[in-house]
Amino acid sequence: QKEVEQNSGPLSVPEGAIASLNCTYSDRVSQSFFWYRQYSGKSPELIMSIYSNGDKEDGRFTAQLNKASQYVSLLIRDSQPSDSATYLCAVIVLYGGSQGNLIFGKGTKLSVKP
Amino acid sequence: DTGVSQDPRHKITKRGQNVTFRCDPISEHNRLYWYRQTLGQGPEFLTYFQNEAQLEKSRLLSDRFSAERPKGSFSTLEIQRTEQGDSAMYLCASSADRGYEQYFGPGTRLTVT
User: Fold this and answer.
1) Nearest to B98 by CA among B35, B26, B34, B31
2) What pLDDT, on the 0 to 100 scale, is given for residue A1?
3) Does A103 sit within 8 Å of B106, measured CB to CB?
4) Which end of chain B is less enclosed by CB atoms within 10 A, N or C?
5) What is the chain A residue with the closest CA to B102?
């Protein structure tokens, strides 16, 4: 059974700081990883995808993947109060090499204090 | 290019009633997914379509649940004889053949009283 683990938080950081969100997964075969942001009462919004070991940067967001350690993280630089949300880590399950459904962690709640 | 749409956005029903939800994916997205999310949990997979074919179903999808995508465009999810435990946010997502990114609709929040 594939599992995705995240600290539920809440993680509280001051405005302007770097927020670091972590995720581990159980399946060594997993290849594709995603970070979603979910505001309270809203649906998940895709913010980052990463497929290869190393770092991937998009604006203030950096995703880091280490497949050997089965670890993926999300860094948010210059955190803003508008970044306050729950961040969901997800891993894709492949069916016969083709894309399939996502398995999500429970999410980490981030609070950015002004 | 519009995103994924879902209807209704909210549904309140009495236990034992049937409900049906609709999802319209992003145009040209062949893959469509249904998930369910309860408070404090991440979304849980229910079922998956590629075009009109239902390729995967989770064990969470009991016999009271049925999903269709008759023409490979919009999809419906029906819950028969609703139970209080069915209260949740029902999310639809779609993705293109090329690429693994899934994009979610706004969800349908179901409350069973």
Assistant:
1) B31
2) 63
3) no
4) N
5) A46
